[in-house]
From TrEMBL:
First-level EC class: transferase
A GO molecular-function annotation: 4-(cytidine 5'-diphospho)-2-C-methyl-D-erythritol kinase activity
Pathway assigned to this chain's UniProt record: Isoprenoid biosynthesis; isopentenyl diphosphate biosynthesis via DXP pathway; isopentenyl diphosphate from 1-deoxy-D-xylulose 5-phosphate: step 3/6
Record-stated family: Belongs to the GHMP kinase family. IspE subfamily.
Protein name: 4-diphosphocytidyl-2-C-methyl-D-erythritol kinase
Binding site for ATP: P79, A80, A81, S82, G83, I84, G85, G86, G87, S88, S89
Residue span(s) of domain GHMP kinase N-terminal: 57-119
Domain of life of the organism encoding this protein: Bacteria
Organism from which the protein derives: Maritimibacter alkaliphilus HTCC2654
Length: 265
């Protein structure tokens, strides 16, 4: 997920230049591949509703880049099109599983075209992501962050959010990132950064205003922000216990939202 997301420019082909601090949560989908006679995909799990089990799914397109046909199982635990890189990490996990299975060490041509965020998901480490997503600089282990993730079960189309963005040339993060000494210092630093897609995402999906307001008012919440192009937002907490308690409170008030506590690294 994106702890920060600064939009710093736009390329001639329409893609946007970003400067983002990306972290990984201890919640996610599960992907497995097994050698088979032909390519197939089975989508299961609590968030599988409406997720295509065909060649339009990124995991299918990732597996297709290899010569070996496989039976793929994708267990969805993250909501689709929700701004936390679920589809990209599914594609990255498929590429890694396929390279394990086939013994092919180098990623096939076409892997980069699966999506701008697939590259960072291959590293599975906190990183500064820039360019359109192709420049990935690991930042070393982050001080542990505890979070509540909340999604109002509204899918937000990323292109529409970029289109509604008023200014495409915003300040990047400071060139040199601090060596954060602890959770509090990291959260204070994050608070001075932004997600430039928050305002346009709220225009596309006004319910995001409610999600951020609900997260901000949770007991002990230190910072609330949207991830990616939304609609998933997060609040940060000093301890896992505080995040667990806050998630339970929020889930009770909004039983129709997807609400989970998570630890980010
Ligand atoms: O690369 P991905 O398929 O995830 O991107 C979805 C859409 O988001 C793109 O078609 C583009 O409209 C927008 N996008 C962008 N700049 C980026 C990444 C995505 O404009 N760096």
């Amino acid at each position: 997920m994106n702890l920060t997301l600064h939009v710093t420019g736009q390329r001639k082909d329409g893609y946007h230049l970003l400067d983002s601090l990306v972290a990984f949560a201890d919640v996610g989908d599960r992907v497995s591949v097994m050698a088979a006679d032909k390519l197939s995909l089975d989508v299961t799990g609590p968030m599988s509703d409406g997720v295509p089990a065909d060649a339009t799914n990124l995991v299918w397109r990732a597996a297709e880049l290899f010569d070996q046909p496989v039976a793929i199982t994708l267990s969805k635990h993250l909501p689709a099109a929700s701004g936390i890189g679920g589809g990209s990490s599914d594609a990255a996990a498929t590429l890694l599983a396929m390279s394990d299975l086939t013994g092919e060490r180098t990623l096939p041509e076409g892997a980069a075209q699966l999506g701008a965020d697939v590259r960072v998901c291959l590293t599975r480490q906190a990183a500064r992501m820039s360019g359109i997503g192709e420049i990935v600089e690991p930042v070393g282990p982050l001080p542990q962050l505890h979070a509540v993730l909340a999604n109002p079960r509204v899918e937000v189309p990323t292109p529409a959010v970029f289109k509604a963005l008023a200014s495409k040339t915003n300040a990047p993060m400071p060139r040199k990132l601090p060596k954060w000494q602890g959770t509090k210092q990291l959260i204070d630093w994050l608070a001075a950064q932004r997600n430039d897609l928050e305002d346009p995402a709220m225009q596309v999906a006004p319910v995001i205003v409610d999600v951020l307001a609900a997260l901000t008012t949770l007991p002990d919440a230190r910072l609330a922000r949207m991830s990616g192009s939304g609609a998933t937002c997060f609040a940060l907490f000093a301890s896992r216990e505080a995040a667990n308690a806050a998630a339970a409170t929020l889930a009770e008030v909004h039983p129709d939202w997807w609400v989970v506590p998570a630890t980010l690294t």
